[in-house]
């Protein structure tokens, strides 16, 4: 079954919705998480993608950031982030994306990311490679982390300031081992890894809808995608873990090993 055609056409239409709202929305803070905001566009895009999935694949499960879980007891689950980088979107910053991923059992099988402002659509399916607007992409061939731009997403934990201070200390060690740090707070950074522009990308405060579509694209572009400490991401029982965090570290294989040395060394020193 050709999932890429469906993902591509769905993201093309979703991008039109995003561009229609871009620069014209108001945002509210989600009551359950002060780091998360919501706009009319999130709801409109989510509703559109969910409707497309349910029309084309009515027996599949769905996880949508805003709508929640639709459990049809299927081995296939579509995972949707209507706008990744909503804070950027709400302020008129163009670094945002739309993520649509497909899990088969408990592994990413296909996915796509749209960067509407840049008119880019990234696609990947297991064993078929990764593409941006139809052109094959691959991760960086650089073998020294010190030569790389690296993306890192970090959120403040006002409820536990020491957690943020500890992460900031680790981030300092990472910065000392790279060329420069970048942080869009969105899937834009992940697509820069897939295209070979960034050497790596990390984030610890992410949910399942942030990672499934991203993971398959980077892996099919030749990258490694693990949890923050280098182990395979555990998607087991994911329909009942809707609110769990899925922290990750992703990079080309040789750069991933270098990052993991820094991460584990710093954690050991703490």
From TrEMBL:
For molecular function, the Gene Ontology terms on record are: inositol monophosphate 1-phosphatase activity; metal ion binding
- Binding residues for Mg(2+), per the UniProt record? 65, 81, 83-84, 210
What name does the UniProt record give this protein?
Answer: Inositol-phosphate phosphatase
What does the UniProt keyword field contain?
Hydrolase, Magnesium, Metal-binding
Listed PANTHER family: INOSITOL MONOPHOSPHATASE (PTHR20854), INOSITOL-1-MONOPHOSPHATASE-RELATED (PTHR20854:SF4)
Q: Specify one Pfam family.
A: Inositol_P
Is the keyword Magnesium assigned to this protein?
A: yes
Cofactor(s) annotated in UniProt: Mg(2+)
Which InterPro entries does this one have? Inositol_monoP_metal-BS (IPR020583), Inositol_monophosphatase-like (IPR000760)
Q: Name one GO biological process term.
A: signal transduction
């Amino acid at each position: 079954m050709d999932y890429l055609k469906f993902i591509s056409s769905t993201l093309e239409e979703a991008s039109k919705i995003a561009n229609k709202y871009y620069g014209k929305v108001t945002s509210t803070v989600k009551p359950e998480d002060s780091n998360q905001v919501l706009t009319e566009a999130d709801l409109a895009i989510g509703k559109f993608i969910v409707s497309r999935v349910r029309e084309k694949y009515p027996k599949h499960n769905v996880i949508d950031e805003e709508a929640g879980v639709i459990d049809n007891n299927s081995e296939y689950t579509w995972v949707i982030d209507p706008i990744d980088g909503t804070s950027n979107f709400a302020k008129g910053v163009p670094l945002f994306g739309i993520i649509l991923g497909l899990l088969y059992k408990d592994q990413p099988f296909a996915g796509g990311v749209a960067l509407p402002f840049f008119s880019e659509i990234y696609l990947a399916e297991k064993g078929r490679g990764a593409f941006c607007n139809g052109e094959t992409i691959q991760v960086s061939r650089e073998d020294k982390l010190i030569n790389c731009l690296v993306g890192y997403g970090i959120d403040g934990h006002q409820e536990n300031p020491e957690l943020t201070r500890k992460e900031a200390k680790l981030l300092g060690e990472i910065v000392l081992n790279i060329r420069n740090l970048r942080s869009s707070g969105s899937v834009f950074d992940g697509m820069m890894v897939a295209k070979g522009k960034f050497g790596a990308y990390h984030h610890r405060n992410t949910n399942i809808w942030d990672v499934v579509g991203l993971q398959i694209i980077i892996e099919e572009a030749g990258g490694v995608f693990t949890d923050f400490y280098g182990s395979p991401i555990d998607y087991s029982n994911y329909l009942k873990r809707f609110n769990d965090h899925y922290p990750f570290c992703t990079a080309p294989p040789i750069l991933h090993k270098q990052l993991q040395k820094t991460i584990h060394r710093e954690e050991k020193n703490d």
